[in-house]
């Protein structure tokens, strides 16, 4: 039970009071317990809808990235990497909801959902950090290298060089 039970007597009726301990969620016994809330809870349904939409968006971006950024290889790689991450998190989240719905003995525990949320929030924080701090520098370096590569002469493409004869014709 989430707390201690006690009976409070009133004038005409008695009712039960449950003491809620906010630190119960930090105990390992809570993490490894089977969930008590029903799966038709609106929060689970909304999470499943969001995860399905994220799965579809991740798959679309993963497939469409080479076409959307055909001339910009750096952005193509970034969008592909982010799409794979989004697709993976959505698929794992849907699997965890499925495991809770089917009451799989080990994989339906609360700790897996907590770990998934911890990893998802950590990944979102890292992606925000990467896009604000790291990405602009790497993009500028890539564009500089691309500009240099574009104007450098390609080996073996000189028009004025005489053709080399093969050793047989010498």
Overview of this protein structure:
The chain is mainly alpha-helical. It is 61% helix and 6% strand. The protein has helices at 28-31, 42-68, 73-102, 110-151; strands at residues 5-9, 14-18. The protein has a two-stranded antiparallel ribbon. α2 (42-68) packs antiparallel against α3 and α3 (73-102) runs antiparallel to α4. The longest helix is centred in the C-terminal third of the chain and has 42 residues, at 110-151. The model has no long low-confidence stretch (mean pLDDT 80).
**Estimated structural class:** mainly alpha
Mean pLDDT: 80
Give me the count of strands.
Answer: 2
The largest pleated sheet is described as:
2 strands, antiparallel
End-to-end gap? 95 Å
Low-confidence parts: none
Major β-sheet strand ordering: 1-2
Strand content: 5-15%
The 3D shape can be described as: elongated
What Rg do the Cα atoms give?
A: 29 Å
In helices, the fraction of residues equals 55-70%
Order of helices and strands: EEHHHH
Count up the helices. Answer: 4
Give the secondary structure arrangement, pairings included.
Layout: E1 5-9, E2 14-18, H1 28-31, H2 42-68, H3 73-102, H4 110-151
Antiparallel strand pairs: 1-2
Question: Quick summary of this structure?
Answer:
This protein has helices at 28-31, 42-68, 73-102, 110-151, and strands at 5-9, 14-18. The chain has 170 residues and is mostly helical. The protein has a domain at 35-149.
């Amino acid at each position: 039970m989430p707390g201690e039970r006690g009976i409070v007597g009133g004038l005409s009726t008695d009712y039960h009071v449950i003491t809620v301990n906010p630190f119960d969620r930090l105990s390992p016994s809570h993490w490894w317990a089977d969930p008590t809330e029903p799966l038709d809870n609106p929060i689970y349904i909304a999470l499943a809808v969001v995860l399905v939409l994220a799965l579809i968006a991740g798959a679309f971006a993963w497939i469409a990235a080479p076409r959307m950024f055909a001339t910009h290889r750096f952005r193509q790689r970034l969008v592909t990497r982010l799409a794979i991450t989004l697709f993976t998190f959505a698929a794992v989240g849907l699997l965890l909801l499925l495991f809770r719905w089917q009451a799989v003995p080990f994989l339906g525990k609360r700790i897996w959902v907590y770990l998934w949320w911890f990893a998802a929030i950590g990944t979102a924080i890292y992606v925000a950090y990467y896009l604000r701090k790291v990405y602009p520098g790497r993009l500028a370096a890539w564009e500089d290298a691309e500009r240099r590569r574009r104007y450098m002469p390609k080996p073996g493409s000189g028009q004025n060089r005489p053709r080399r004869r093969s050793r047989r014709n010498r």
